[in-house]
Inverse folding.
């Protein structure tokens, strides 16, 4: 069972529920996309888009993605992403803006 520490997300119950849903969503999406850089990028962008629409900040979304419940048991660790795979993902995540997350669409990846 996923346990969230409310500290990084504040003590807002609706945010904690959103965090749990997003964590479950990205875990499922990344299990399917693991091994394909393009599919992984799409899954991560969908995750950030959903989170932004729910009102979560980029910091909150990054925390959920990389640090919940702990860095060694994060979504990526549970799926088995290698250090090399994570090193390829990090630049994309670091460059992401809230505007890009909000404006994400599948069509935008085709450009």
């Amino acid at each position: 069972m996923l346990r969230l520490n409310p500290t990084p997300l504040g003590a807002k119950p609706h945010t904690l529920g959103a965090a749990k849903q997003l964590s479950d969503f990205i875990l499922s999406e990344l299990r399917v996309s693991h091994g394909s850089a393009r599919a992984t990028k799409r899954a991560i962008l969908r995750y950030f888009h959903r989170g932004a629409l729910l009102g979560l900040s980029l910091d909150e979304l990054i925390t959920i993605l990389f640090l919940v419940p702990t860095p060694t048991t994060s979504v990526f660790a549970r799926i088995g992403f290698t250090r090399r795979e994570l090193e390829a993902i990090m630049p994309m995540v670091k460059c992401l803006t809230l505007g890009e997350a909000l404006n994400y669409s599948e069509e935008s990846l085709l450009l």
Residues 44 and 52 are 12 Å apart (CA to CA). The chain has one domain: 13-105. The two ends are 39 Å apart (CA to CA).
